[in-house]
Design a protein that fits this description.
- With 282 residues, this protein is an alpha/beta fold.
- The protein has eleven helices and eight strands.
- It has one domain: Rossmann fold (3-Layer(aba) Sandwich), CATH 3.40.50.
- Strands 1, 2, 3, 4, 5, 6, 7 and 8 form an eight-stranded mixed β-sheet that branches.
- A hairpin with a 2-residue loop joins strand 7 and strand 8.
- Helix 6 packs antiparallel against helix 7 and helix 6 runs antiparallel to helix 11.
- The longest helix is centred in the N-terminal third of the chain and has 25 residues.
- The N and C termini lie far apart (51 Å).
- It binds S-adenosylmethionine.
- S-adenosylmethionine binds next to helix 3.
């Protein structure tokens, strides 16, 4: 029984399932810093046109679907799919507030609930690394795209290229435990450019282009970096119940380890991602 609970917890962490207040924290702390600018870059790279159908896989709180829908205004049907009901509820609240018409649907990326050759564009921002079978998901994305339709992905580079998150994961592992370290490392798969290109090509896509994007992230302090990242992640509950002494030690050590990234305004560091655009041959 204990093992079952541990397995469930591990699976929630590896597939990045968040709950409670975390979708709101995710939207407040993480979306403006990097998910929104990356959604705008993906949209600019693909330039979707009105009149078609667009799918955002693993949409989370829906920043890509919302960005595309607000670019197109009228004349396109946008669907956001995620397996997490709480993320979808937040997405729906936000699109309603913005006056955007988007269908939010619950489902699994490895079995997309859509017919063949349906969509003009399929987007997936920072989702691929959490799927248990990413190659199967790419095949599904290929299947549901129309011939000539385009795929737009972005996937974080490995943790080696995101050094502040390596520091944060290492400190979490030391002070909170192995699960906490793996959760913070999970968004940064060990996939290089060649691996991603091969995965996309093996799923049947052609005309693949890949760009590296580097963004500068800033937080008012290393403590805020920890607080915001934890509150917006599957670690939220565990961090809230952390004993005061452990929490203080973690904050002190994190502050010391992030020393190379500190300035008079807090901490600032680069975050690197890969953007991939590809086409299903007509
Ligand atoms: C880091 S979030 C990215 C969300 C969103 N694309 C964005 O840009 O903010 C990862 C999302 O993948 C979703 N997810 C993980 N595994 C999934 C699966 N098998 N099928 C559908 N969604 C999944 C999670 O629920 C979460 O919302």
């Amino acid at each position: 029984m204990k093992e079952d609970i541990m397995n469930d917890a591990n699976s929630e962490i590896q597939t990045w399932q968040i709950s409670g207040n975390s979708p709101a924290a995710y939207e407040r702390y993480l979306v403006p810093g990097f998910f929104k600018p990356w959604a705008e870059t993906l949209t600019a790279y693909t330039s979707p046109t009105s009149g078609g159908e667009i799918l955002d896989v693993a949409c989370g709180t829906g920043i890509v679907a919302r960005t595309v829908a607000s670019t197109l205004k009228n004349g396109a049907r946008v669907i956001g799919l995620d397996n997490n009901r709480e993320m979808l509820n937040k997405a729906s609240e936000l699109s309603e507030k913005a006056g955007l018409e988007i269908d939010w649907q619950q489902g699994h990326a490895d079995q997309l609930p859509y017919e063949n050759d349906r969509f003009d564009y399929v987007f997936c921002q920072q989702g691929m690394q959490f799927f248990p079978e990413p190659q199967q998901v790419l095949k599904e994305m290929h299947r549901v795209l129309k011939p000539g339709g385009r795929l737009a992905l972005n996937i974080m580079r490995s943790i080696r290229h995101n050094p502040a998150f390596k520091i944060l994961s290492d400190e979490l592992e030391k002070h909170v435990g192995e699960n906490a370290g793996s959760m913070m490392r999970a968004p940064f798969p060990e996939w290089d450019q060649k691996k991603i290109r091969n995965m996309v090509e093996d799923a049947g896509f052609r005309d693949i282009s890949l760009h590296l994007e580097i963004i500068s992230m800033r937080f008012p302090s290393s403590e805020e970096f920890l607080r915001r990242e934890a509150a917006s992640s599957p670690l939220a509950g565990e961090m809230e119940s952390l004993a005061g002494e452990t929490r203080n030690k973690l904050i002190d050590h994190l502050h010391e380890s992030l020393e190379p990234y500190q300035d008079d305004k807090g901490v600032v560091f680069p975050m690197e991602t890969m953007m991939i655009i590809a086409e299903k041959q007509g």
